[in-house]
Structure formats: C-alpha cells, structure tokens
Design brief:
370 residues, alpha/beta, 6-stranded mixed sheet, 28% strand, elongated, binds guanosine-5'-triphosphate, binds magnesium ion, Translation initiation factor IF-2
Length: 370
C-alpha cells in the first residue's frame, strides 16, 4: 500500500514517536501515532533526520521491477541479432558502421530517407541484423549500469596497421564480462602496412584464437573504407546468431531499452527505443524510466511510419510526457493509468536516492512488513 504509520516510521528511523510527531508539526503536518504517512512524507522525514532510506516497492504492485515472466518455448520466435561495434580510437568503427548501412538498403525500403535513430537494421539473405550506433563502450557501460543486456554480438574492430591497443583490450573485457560472443573485424587491410596475421597473433593473448589456429573465434578481414569483406562480416554475424538461437516472444506487451532521447522543438519528447520483447504498437501506454506516455507515432530507421514493431526493432517514438534517459528500461502496460502510477513510483525512488544525507544508515527493509 506504500504507506506506514507514524509509529512504524519512528521505529525504522530509530527515533521516538514524539520526535517524529514534533518534526511533522514543524513541517506543517498534524499527526498522531497511528496516522498513515505516504512515501513522500516518510522520505522527507528521513531527510530531515539525516537518515538515508531505500524504498523497496512491493513486487506485486510493480511489474516493472519483477523478474520477467518466463515464456513458453513454443512462443519464442527467431529475432534479428543486435550487434555493437567496439574498438580502439580511429580503428574504423564509425566508417564500418556507415559502410554497412549504406551498402545494404533493404529492397522495398529503398528510397526511404535514412533517419538517425541510434540503431539501424540491414538485411542479408532475407535475414535482418540490428546495429546499435551507440559507441560500443557507452552501450556496454549503460548496460552494466542498468543491469540490462542490449547487445547479442560484439564486433571488435582492430586496425591491421596498428594492432591491439588499450581500448581493444578494454572492449574485449567488456564483451567477455557481459558474456557476449565476439567477432573480430581486422580493418584497414587495404593499407600497405596492414598485417592481419600480427593482429591474430596479438589477440591469442586474450583467448581470441582463430579457427585456423585451433580456436573458435571468427576473424574477418575488412576494409571499411574500400568496402571489402563487408558481406562476409554480415554472413558471419548471421552464423553466430544462428548458433546462439536468439529468440523472443513477439506476442506480448513490448519491453525494451531507451537508446537515446531528446526534446524535439516540434514534436516534444522523442525516444529511440530498442524493442527487445513483445511487439510495440501505436497507442500503447508505456513507462520509460520514470516517464510515461502513449505511443503517438513510430518511425523506423528508414523514416518509415510503423504501426507495430517486434523484437530487435529500433524505433523512434513520440507521445512521452518527459524525456527519459538513455539506458532506461521501457515497458508497455495495460493502460495509461497504470503506466502513470508506475512512473510516479519510480520517480519517487529516484528522488529518494537523490536526497543526499550525511549519516549513511540504510533502512533497506523500510517496507518489509507492508
Ligand atoms: P573514433 O570514433 O574516434 O574512436 O574512431 P573510429 O574507430 O570511429 O574510426 P573512424 O571510422 O573515424 O576512422 C578513423 C580513420 O581511419 C578515418 O580517417 C577513416 O577514414 C580511416 N579508416 C577507417 N577504415 C579504414 C579502412 O578500412 N582503410 C583505410 N585506409 N582507412 C580507414
Ligand atoms: Mg567513431
């Protein structure tokens, strides 16, 4: 129910009820010991007393926080893999992303105006691949910070003329920590001083051993600039996806992650979202971080208006009341009222964590008995 009596609050704050009542009166709240206080008031009290509290929202009241429901195997359908590109500065990440995007325009969608929506899809052999534009490091940091997994496969770009560098190693450890399969793209093979074998040799030190040397890491030689090896790279991504059997249930309410968001002068808050489970539809009520809204319009990376978007589809949506943050979880609810109440609860939790205090007493069981 999200409330506690004055007496219960006093106990959890390690104060006498009379002290709490006095404090409440000084805050303009007339209270008795059995009076119920709402979360906001309890948080204010805690701040007044310099005590840090942690709000645990009861699980049954907030599906947003619950462990995701398990899908039946039969409901799971193949979905496009979501790929990020990581690598050392100047090794060609942006050039590679741009080259893949421009060489591969899905027939039927040709002529569409490319939109920057934080991610894009390409199609090869009638299968789609989703690429995240977000620099890999940022995507991974976000993922880890929010506990969300948005990438299925990581491509580590290593310039063949430069070899393994500090951020290459960092990228490898990010991908390994997240348990994401790695494909190595040895880039700039067009350069006269390119030495792809040296890159392979150097990477064995990080347990990335090519198949021809008895390992199981896929290496592809590419030139992002000359557009060489791109098709092979895409095929290898599909191969890894096939082996890993990335699946999702498209027949439920959508859930995903905000990739980017901003305030657009004309359209108001705009969010670019990667749908990860279920299908997002125009008109759906949703929560993104602690913002809520109703999908007014939805556009894909080719600037095409969509009525619905299934798993692994990046879309740009309007219809939010505020601007969420990149990395925020996104989830559809049965109606706007529910979405609003969840968003408000999340806002309270955030406000609470922002109420800095001197004494670091964590009352993590604040609502244990509610
Ligand atoms: P940061 O975003 O700064 O980390 O760099 P990046 O990894 O995105 O590299 P970017 O794509 O900006 O490429 C860096 C430089 O390398 C640019 O001048 C590119 O033109 C060049 N470059 C990228 N790929 C190739 C390639 O395959 N061959 C050659 N010769 N040059 C390349
Ligand atoms: Mg770049």
């Amino acid at each position: 129910r999200g409330t506690m009596t004055v007496g219960e609050t006093a106990k959890l704050l390690h104060k006498d009820a009379s002290e709490v009542i006095k404090k409440l009166i000084s805050m303009g709240v007339m209270a008795t010991i059995n009076q119920e206080l709402d979360i906001d008031t309890i948080l204010l009290l805690a701040a007044e007393f310099g005590v840090e509290v942690e709000v645990k929202i009861p699980v049954e009241e907030d599906r947003f926080e619950t462990v995701e429901e398990v899908d039946n195997e039969a409901d799971l359908k193949e979905r496009p893999p979501v790929v990020t590109i990581m690598g050392h500065v100047d090794h060609g990440k942006t050039t590679l992303l741009d080259a893949i995007r421009s060489t591969n325009v899905t027939s039927g969608e040709a002529g569409g105006i490319t939109q920057h929506i934080g991610a894009y899809q390409v199609e090869i052999n009638n299968k789609k691949i989703t690429f995240l534009d977000t620099p890999g490091h940022e995507a991974f940091t976000l993922m880890r910070a929010r506990g969300a997994q948005i990438t299925d496969i990581t491509i580590i770009v290593v310039a063949a003329d430069d070899g393994v560098m500090p951020q290459t190693v960092e990228a490898i450890s990010h991908a390994k920590a997240a348990g994401v399969p790695i494909i190595v793209a040895v880039n700039k093979i067009d350069k006269p001083d390119a030495d792809p074998d040296r890159v392979k040799q150097e990477l064995t030190e990080y347990e990335l051993v090519p198949e021809e040397w008895g390992g199981d890491t896929i290496f592809v030689n590419v030139s992002a600039k000359q557009r060489m090896g791109l098709e092979e790279l895409l095929e290898m991504i599909l191969l890894v996806a096939e082996v890993n059997e990335f699946k999702a249930n498209p027949n439920k309410r959508a859930r995903g992650t905000v990739i980017e968001a901003e305030l657009d002068k004309g359209r108001g808050p705009v969010a670019r979202v990667l749908v990860q489970h279920g299908t997002l539809k125009v008109g759906d009520a949703f929560v993104a971080g602690n913002c809520f809204g109703r999908v007014r319009a939805m556009v894909n990376d080719k600037g095409r208006r969509l009525k619905e978007a299934g798993p692994s589809t990046p879309v740009e949506i309007t219809g939010l009341t505020e601007v969420p943050q990149a990395g925020d979880p996104f989830m559809v609810f049965e109606d706007e009222r529910k979405a609003r109440s969840i968003a408000e609860k999340r806002a309270i939790t955030q406000r609470q964590s922002e109420l800095g205090s001197n004494t670091r007493v964590t009352l993590d069981d604040l609502f244990k008995h509610i």
